[in-house]
Amino acid sequence: STPLYSSAASDVYKRQAIACEMIKIKLYNSKTRSKIDFYPLDKKNVMMYVCGPTVYERAHIGNARPVIVFDVLFRLLRYIYGSKHVSYARNFTDVDDKINASALKTGRSIKEITDETINWFISDMKALGNLEPSYTPRATEYIDQMILMNKELLAKGFAYEAENHVIFEVQKYEGYGLLSGRSLEDMLAGARVEVAPYKKNPMDFILWKPSGSDEPGWESPWGYGRPGWHIECSAMSRDIFGAKFDIHGGGLDLAFPHHENEIAQSCCLGGQESFAQIWMHNEMLQVDGKKMSKSLNNFFSPKELIDEGVSGEALRLVYLSTHYRKPLDWTEQKVMANQKTYNKWQQLVANSEVGIVSGNVLNAIADDLNTPLAIAEMHKLAKSGNIKDLKASGIFLGLFGNSSNQNSKLTISQDSQQLIEFLFKQRMDARKRKDYARADELRDGFIQAGLIINDTKDGIVWELSDDFDIKKLEDLQ
Ligand code: AMP
Ligand code: ZN
Questions:
Q1: Which residue in 93, 369, 391, 446 has a CA-CA distance of 20 to 30 Å to 385?
Q2: What is the pLDDT of residues 204-254, one digit of tens each?
Q3: DSSP conformational letter for 156
Q4: Could you tell me if 85 and 44 are in contact, meaning their C-beta atoms sit under 8 angstroms apart?
Q5: Mind giving me the DSSP string for 172-209?
Q6: What's the whole-model pTM score?
Q7: Nearest C-alpha to atom 9 of ligand 1 is from which residue?
Q8: What are residue 417's phi and psi, to 5 degrees?
């Protein structure tokens, strides 16, 4: 039978494997304020946690920034370590006083509001070219784990109980303030901290608080109540990843107090070296040089722009054109200019095969997500007529959809192609270190999965048989 796909004898995979081998990931760690070489705790299980949205209203264009930033990082990690070896968790905060207020105002149930907002979020972020994270936990599904953590914090003396509240005592944690680089005094002066009679120190923060009968709540050792905001991320990341994971991300507005508090809760229990190894924060998005706000009428959602006829990918390009550690100033001109660029690229790649992801694009992204440089490289590819690699590089960055290259007789999905290349590289590596058992296991696995390979003097030539099964390949990683 005719193969679904045949690789060119020009061994595309080999060029890609070489491009991939040279990549060194460097990330800016906001905790140490320095760019570091990234080495995961376990390269077979790279773990990233990003704080997700509070779900009471449709995501605005600012909320999409961290989603796109960390999606680009997710794609890079999958590319380098293999998709099966990267786990990305992004939560939904579905218990919060803003949600309660919205329920009161609209007369709708909390569940109705949060379900609707979560569904909008998923579809809006997909329209911007983002992959779904591996885990999307909802805070309300982790109440037991939060209660357990609070109990542990109380038992170890890091928290105290007062008037049906559980409160974290910041004086008990020496490292408090290290992430944002502030002293307790600075924090107290600079932040609007809630002074309350039941707190020993105004900086102390709430782990659990009582709920009125008309408020959402759960039974707990401290009475009917609900969690404070910060404990959810500590509890969810511990449940999903354990005490330690690689990368924690979110918007810069979360560094203090949210992330500072997450660290205090988690490291008091897990030890100073536990929790996130690297912290990454995206700068904020502004509109026409001003902070987004409803009263300034500069507050809108990606969905509204898409409904006006802008493509999701053009919007994605607007985000990518500014480095994530710089403020992004959103303007209509940028939207129009990026739509023009996108239309031009899309026309160029429409009927092209998929080449390899440009090494320059990969290197730019690996250098602390230098997306503006990656886009400059994309322009160079377009200008020099390297359309195949333009297409591959665009797909890598989350552009050009995936519909254009799926289920076609001529091409296979970029994901499958990347997986195949990754496994070839694994086989090459296994042979290099004389691990013939692993090399044979891979070769047998290829046959099982319907991937036919021939070693020729020009390199490996491969094709997919009709019964090609990507699942079986995935199991080989
Ligand atoms: P929230 O729903 O307010 O908890 O925010 C969800 C995510 O969106 C957080 O990571 C915030 O840091 C981020 N975020 C909110 N507003 C902006 C903005 N204007 N620019 C960039 N990121 C933002
Ligand atoms: Zn968080």
A1: 369
A2: 999 999 999 889 999 999 999 999 999 999 999 999 999 999 999 999 999
A3: T
A4: yes
A5: G-TTTTTTTT--HHHHHHHS-PPP-TT-SSTT-EEEEE
A6: 0.84
A7: 251
A8: -60, -40
